[in-house]
Structures are given as structure tokens and as C-alpha cells.
Amino acid sequence: MQSVRLCVRTLFRDTTRIAVTKQSAGLRLLSTSKMLAYQKPCTIGDPVDDIDTPALVVCLNKLEENVGKMNTAMEKYPGVAVRPHVKTHKCPEVARMQMRAGAVGMCCQTLTEAEAMVGGGVADVFITNELVGKTKLRRLASLARQAAVSITVDDAANLQDISDVATEMGVTIHIAIEVNVGQDRCGVEPGEPAVSLAKLATSLPGVTFKGIHCYNGWNQHVRSTEERSNAVNKVVDLTRKTLEALKAAGLECPYVTGGGTGTFHFEAASKVFTEVQPGSYVFMDADYYKNLARDGNFDTEFLQSLFVLTTVQSAAASGERVVLDAGLKAVSLDSGVPMLSQRPDLTYHSGGDNHGIVTPGGDLPVGSKVWLIPGHCDPTVNLYDWIVGLRDGKVECVWPVSGRGPGN
Questions:
Q1: Is 14 helix (H, G, I), strand (E, B) or coil?
Q2: Distance CA 23, CA 10 (A)
Q3: Mean pLDDT score of the chain, rounded to an integer?
Q4: Residue 130 pLDDT level (bands cut at 50, 70, 90)
Q5: pLDDT band at residue 37, thresholds of 50, 70 and 90?
Q6: Predicted confidence band at 327 (pLDDT cuts at 50, 70, 90)?
Q7: 58 to each of 302, 314, 340, how far by Cα in Å?
Q8: Nearest to 111 by CA among 95, 125, 94, 92
């Protein structure tokens, strides 16, 4: 019954947006298909100028090149798998593209993301986050009936709850002990605390001890290559300490996962990590482009494929500013303001919920399209229902962002 409720809830959330409109003395319920068509910012074959803005758009050629570049990059690290993080795109279509390129599965940060991926055909998901409460854990166990499911744990009582729910529902959930390797967010301390939890995982029914999760998100945006490398060395040392403690306790640990777009080369080369979790590489953003390559220039290993397409809705007669139709509801500002693509002479400023102010106004007339490079791709994607895929100036596809949500 729980599985049925989950399926119905997911179907309703992902495919149904109900609109009620006044019609004479009564109310008319719009059909699901009509409402979905209304919501989409464009249709297949539309030119860029016909896309309703603000819209989240991706250059398909660059997206595909990024996926291929990751596959090529990882050829240097035999024995290390890639499990991309879907918190970047939250879109099963992109996940399937990554799987076809050799990814072993997907990382998810929320249950909603995991449900979207499994519903979209991904057969192996790893939730790199702690889920607390039996309501969520039953949703997790429902997924384990359809796919291989792993999750991080850093608390004994939470691990017991996972075991209880998995046993109750007749499934197996794979456990990765999260180790605090410097981010000071979630995770037990390296060494013996991780051993204690691992021992508990091996003793409980309904769960299996898979390995350890050792991720430090702050390291992804350390700017110089040397400093990023040094930061990852500290992660590797703490990870190795934990592996040695597990071995001394007689526990095998064949799975060590972590790393991201900014550091995956270092984790993959460490001879300690067996898997890396880059996510942003498929899209990139303005903040990642502040990272430096070994030559001291800005890192361009991956291409900017994601943009927020906007329209100039107002222009000051003085030319000192123009106003875009993309404000706080269209772009995330947590990692700084977006950049204007190919216009380094212009600066975006927040103008409120629905406005972005660009200074100077320059040569942008009312009605012209502006391409914004998000400051942070992950939360920007989370603001949209659709990703518009462009090729050769026309809409080739419109993909649902079915894993978006506040974190449930």
C-alpha cells in the first residue's frame, strides 16, 4: 500500500499541475495535458527568440561534450568509478545520458531526487545525505524494491531505524558510513567512531555495510590548483586513517566515495578512493569558472552549457541600466550574481523577485534576449520545472526537472 501511495504521489507531483479558471458563473478544470502544454516555455522546433522567458536552457552540443570529457578524464584512473551527482540537474534524461557514458549509478541528495531517478530508469542510486524519520525511511525502502539503494549514516539510532524499516518491508538497504573529513557538516569523526557504526551495520538485519563516504564540499571551490590539491591531501589522510581502523577491526571496506567537480582528479588519483561524485561538470557555472588550472588561468576543462535565458523588459533613457525579467525567482545568488555570457563589460545586480538590473545598459534594447551564466547551477536549476535543450538555435527537447523540491 505504501508503494502505491508513493507512486500516486510521485505521478501527481510530476505530471499534474491543476489550474482552475473562472468561466461565466462556474469553474472549469483544465485538463492535465493542456496545463502541461501551457507551462512549457516553448515547443519542439521553436527558435530561441520564441522561448518564453525566463527559461532554463542548455546547449546540447556542450552538454554532450562535457559528458564525454568526464569519461575521457576518468580513463586515467583505472578502477575508479564515476557516480555523478544529480543535485546539479535533477533530471532523469541527463542521468540516462551519463549512465550511457559509463556512470555506475547516480548520487542523490534528497528522496525526491532519488524517486525521480528510479522512476526515470536509473537502477542504482546512492543518497549522500542522512534521512531521519520512519516516514522518509519507508519511502526509501519502497525505492529499494525497484533499484539498488544506498544511503549515508552517521548515527546509531538512525541506522537502527533503517534496519527496522528495511526488515519490515522485506528489502535490503546498503549503508555507507559518512566520515567528517573536514567539512564539519554531517559525519562521524575518522577512525574508531566510523568503526563502531560499521560494526553495527554488519550486525543488523535488512542492511549491509557498503563502505565509507568521505566528501568535503568546501574544497570544490578552493581557487588555486595547489591549494585544492593540499586540501584533498588532508581528506585522503583522514580517509586512510579510517580505512586502517576498519582493517584493524577486521572489517573489509571495498567502497570509498567522495570528491566533486573541483577535486575529482585528486581523489581519483589518490589510490584510496574507489569512486568519485562530480555533478556540476555537466552544466558548470560562474563560481566554478573562478577556479584556476595548473597554468594559473581560469579552469576551462568543462564547457558552460547551462544558461538562464532572459528578456530586457525596460531600458533607462540615459543608457545607465536595463532591467531583465529574471530576478530572485529565476537565478540563485548564494554563490554570487550571474554573469552575462560574452558580455564581461556588463554587470548583473539583483532587482528583487522578478527583476535583474544590468549596468551599464549599453546597447541592449527592450525585447532583446540576454544569456545569463548562473552563479551556482544546482539551486538555479531547482527554480525551474523544465530544461530547454537547444541545438543549432532551435529547441530540440524540453525535459522535466522532476527531482526539484525543497529537500524532502
A1: helix
A2: 30
A3: 92
A4: very high
A5: very low
A6: very high
A7: 14, 26, 15
A8: 125
Q: Percent of the chain, pLDDT > 90?
A: 88
Looking at residue 397, its pLDDT comes to 98
Is the per-residue pLDDT at 10 higher than 90?
A: no
What do you get for the CA distance between the two ends of the chain, in Å? 20
Distance CA 397, CA 305 (A): 15
SS3 of residue 201 by DSSP: helix
- Looking at residue 362, its pLDDT comes to 81
pLDDT at 203 over 80: yes
Lowest-confidence region among 29-38, 108-117, 226-235: 29-38
Adjacent-strand bridge partners of 81? 275
Cα 81 to Cα 105: distance, rounded to the nearest angstrom: 9
Q: Crossing angle for the helix pair 192-203 and 225-248, nearest 10 degrees? A: 50
Dist CA 265 CA 80 (whole Å): 11
Residues 368-379 have a mean pLDDT of 98
- Cβ atoms 179, 214 nearer than 8 A: yes
Name 181's Cβ contacts closer than 8 Å, sequence gap at least 6: 187, 190, 214, 215, 216, 234, 235, 238, 239, 258
Let me know: does 317 contact 335? Beta carbons within 8 Å. no
The number of CA neighbours under 13 Å toward the Cβ of 403 is 29
CB 175 within 8 A of CB 201: yes
Residue owning grid cell 549509478: 105
Residue 279 to residue 367: CA distance in whole angstroms: 34
Mean pLDDT of 353-364: 95
Residue 148, amino acid? A
Buried/exposed 292-321: b ≥16 CB within 10 Å, e otherwise: beeeeeebeebbbbbbbbbbbbebeeeeeb
Contact 117, 101 (CB under 8 A): no
Kindly give, in sequence order, each residue whose CB lies less than 8 Å from that of residue 255, ignoring residues fewer than 6 positions away.
176, 210, 211, 212, 274, 275
- Report d(CA 95, CA 103) in Å as an integer: 9
Contact between 284 and 291 (Cβ < 8 Å): no
pLDDT of residue 224: 96
Q: What whole-number distance in Å separates Cα of residue 228 and Cα of residue 46?
A: 43
Cell matching residue 107: 548520487
Give the Cβ contact number of residue 367 at 10 Å: 10
pTM: 0.90
Judge whether 349 and 359 are in contact, CB under 8 Å: yes
